[in-house]
Each structure stands twice: as structure tokens, then as C-alpha cells.
Design brief:
244 residues, alpha+beta, 6-stranded mixed β-sheet, 4-stranded antiparallel β-sheet, 10 strands, 34% helix, rod-shaped
Length: 244
């Protein structure tokens, strides 16, 4: 009787110990996830965490087991047999906690993979902020250094002289002339040619003024001959007078 009671007590004690161990394991596992912030990350497109590129698939993120630094994040493959990379993050804060894991991303250039910026564990106000990928910073700096080529100077436009447009009045007159019906009429006889009036007599040109002095000859012999002729004529007159 006493033996059976002891056996029952031992069985009850063993069962209680097992339950306690199971409860302790569950509590320890929950505290472990709370401590290292273990998070299963499933991505369907390529992303970046700092300078680590993650192709589509499943990964495990958790904090490095350190009491002093709580911002060292380790990234593992799905079964945690291979560590992909370790990232040194900085503290991040949000205003209100949420019941699920929250991720935010940096703005990246077109055609580049999205880069994770912040990671918040469910129920936490403080999380992790990852640095901007260094290679994207280098690309942005190189693009800013490239100066665009100067735009070509447009050739000067020469204004061509436009033909003079007929005025509105002339256009209307032409249209009225074209619209008037043409009546066939006998052509009138041509007028008789009239004699042209005589041209007025032209005034004769004024005579050239006579020189006041005779031009001097270059020799006195003509003058002497003229005087001789005059004397000879006077002699002839006197002779005739005497004979008369």
C-alpha cells in the first residue's frame, strides 16, 4: 500500500518535472527570439541590405549575440547553415509600435535593386537603420560629375522677302471684272490720225560776245602791209582828184 503510494508520487513528480521542463523550453525559445530579434525574411525580387545583395528567396535576420552592441545584424540563409553577411546598423526609432515586422526602403536610381533602410521588430519602438549602399553613392557622384555637352547654337534664320500681296480693293476689282459677262460688240472704226502740231521754233543761241581787243599777232609785218595799202589808196584818190 505504502509502495504503491510512493510509485504514484514519483510518477506525478516526474510528470510535473517534464511539464516544467517543457514550459521552460518554450519560455526560453520565446525569450531567445525576443533577444536576438530573429526574423524570417522572404523576398520575391532582388533587394540590397547595405552592400549585400539578396536574390529572391528566404533568409533569416537576427542580431549578433552581444551585450554591448545591439546594432550588429547578421544575415543567414534559410536553414542558418551559412552566414551571408554582417551589417553594422545605427539606432532607428518610430512613434508607434506595430504587431508585425516593418521594413522601409531607401530611394534608389531607376533600374537598381531596392535598398532596405529600416527594420522594426514587432512591438518595438526602436529598430535598426542600415546605411545607404556605397556603390550607389559612387554611381550618383559619378553621374553628378559628368557635365552635359553644350547645346549646339542654332543657325541664324534669314528672313525671305515675301511677295507683295495684292490689296483687298484690287482683288475685289479683279473679281468683279472677271465676274462681269462679256457682250460681243462690233469693234468701232479706228480714229483718223491727226496731224501732229508743229513743233515750236527753237530760240537761236545767243551770239558769243566779241572780244574787246584784237588779238595781238606775233609779227608787225601785216600791220605795215595794211598801212601801205591805205597810203596807196589815198594816193590814188588824190591823183584822181587832180586830174579832175
Amino acid at each position: 500500500m505504502i509502495f504503491s503510494s510512493l510509485m504514484k508520487s514519483r510518477a506525478a513528480l516526474t510528470m510535473a518535472s517534464g511539464l516544467a521542463l517543457a514550459a521552460g523550453f518554450v519560455v526560453f525559445h520565446a525569450k531567445a527570439d525576443e533577444w536576438n530579434k530573429k526574423t524570417i525574411l522572404t523576398v520575391n525580387q532582388t533587394i540590397q541590405i547595405s552592400d549585400r545583395v539578396l536574390e529572391p528567396g528566404q533568409y533569416v535576420m537576427k542580431l549578433y549575440n552581444s551585450q554591448s552592441d545591439r546594432h550588429v545584424v547578421q544575415i543567414f540563409n534559410a536553414d542558418q547553415t551559412h552566414i551571408i553577411g554582417t551589417v553594422l546598423a545605427i539606432p532607428a526609432q518610430r512613434l508607434e509600435p506595430t504587431g508585425d515586422t516593418q521594413f522601409t526602403f531607401w530611394e534608389t536610381p531607376a533600374g537598381k535593386a531596392r535598398a532596405m533602410r529600416k527594420w522594426f521588430y514587432p512591438g518595438d519602438l526602436f529598430g535598426q537603420e542600415f546605411p545607404y549602399p556605397k556603390h550607389l553613392t559612387d554611381v550618383a557622384m559619378m553621374e553628378s560629375r559628368v557635365t552635359p555637352a553644350p547645346a549646339p547654337t542654332p543657325a541664324p534664320v534669314t528672313e525671305q522677302a515675301q511677295p507683295e500681296q495684292p490689296s483687298t480693293a484690287e482683288t475685289n476689282n479683279n473679281m468683279e471684272t472677271e465676274q462681269q459677262p462679256q457682250v460681243a460688240e462690233a469693234a468701232p472704226p479706228p480714229p483718223e490720225p491727226q496731224s501732229a502740231p508743229p513743233a515750236p521754233a527753237e530760240n537761236p543761241p545767243a551770239p558769243a560776245p566779241q572780244p574787246r581787243e584784237l588779238p595781238k599777232t606775233g609779227s608787225p609785218y601785216p600791220l605795215i602791209g595794211a598801212l601801205g595799202g591805205v597810203l596807196f589808196a589815198l594816193y590814188g584818190l588824190l591823183r584822181i582828184r587832180r586830174l579832175a
